[in-house]
Amino acid sequence: MSTVSREVNANGGRVEYRAYAVHTRASRQARRPKEPKLANPRLVCLVTAWLIEMWSPDEIAGRLRREFPDDPMMQVSHETIYQSLFVQGRGELRRELHRCLRSGRAQRRVRHGGGGTSGQIPGMVMISERPAEADDRAVPGHWEGDLNLGTGNRSAVGALVERSTRFVLLLHLANGKTALDVNTAMSTAIATLPDALMRSITWDQGKELAAHAKFSVATGVPVYFCDPHSPWQRGTDENTNGLLRQYMPKSTNLAVHSVEELARIADSLNNRPRKTLGYMTPSEKLAELVALTA
């Protein structure tokens, strides 16, 4: 039976069918108020708390499905969250929460299609020489690194991101961003990790890694370098840098962040669910891998 036949039969048949009356009834039914998904106070409270933690709407929606798989009243789509933030008349969430989004914008932007100072570093081993196990993320312990620069490039915070788990270590560079400063900060950071979780580091060709050979001799961790102008070769780190800018905006003095403050930021990132991890958090994924390697 065709769609037209079903429509006619459901509304009086060929003799009684009246197009205007059917259209009027359909319009009236479409205007009936529907209770918004975010009218559930418990759900609103949880979504609000996670927005304040700077989780994205997609991360929130995915985590809700993971934590409440059998409770549809505690699930909501990322689009519903966006609409509640941006669309007038759907303000179940406080409008000022848009500042917690990565963009910080109060309106959605229509999408259209469409690193540090580099130089020749002696003794570079290129990314093409990196073990295949790092490329497919099958084995944990391979990290990507970069510097996040502050106003006028006068201050910096380093970041190391584990490729399999997206676990983040932040490097405190209070005294500067020279090769010696970065070596010292990286050595301090990796000393907290089990040996099985520190197999390699991949960096761009910034001069802050000019002393990479000394670092590798001291720690036993090889360093691999990306090709020039190829940020996609450190895609995990580039994505993490975008998240970090929520906590450390561009054009600010990054030297104001203490060791304790960087630890708090790293903890926030590591307990934030990631779509690529099935909405597990990096901390959960790392603990899972540590248990398997113990």
Give the count of structural domains.
3
- According to CATH, what is the topology of the largest domain? Nucleotidyltransferase, domain 5
CATH superfamily of the largest domain: Ribonuclease H-like superfamily/Ribonuclease H
Note the run of SSEs as H and E: HHHHHHHEEEHEHEHHH
CATH architecture of the largest domain: 2-Layer Sandwich
Percent of residues in helices? 25-40%
Q: What Rg is obtained from the alpha carbons, in whole angstroms?
A: 25 Å
Spans where pLDDT lies below 50 across 5 or more residues? 112-119
Give the terminus-to-terminus CA distance: 63 Å
CATH class of the largest domain: Alpha Beta
Helix tally equals: 12
GO molecular function: DNA binding; transposase activity
Pfam families: rve
Family: Belongs to the transposase IS30 family.
Function: Required for the transposition of the insertion element.
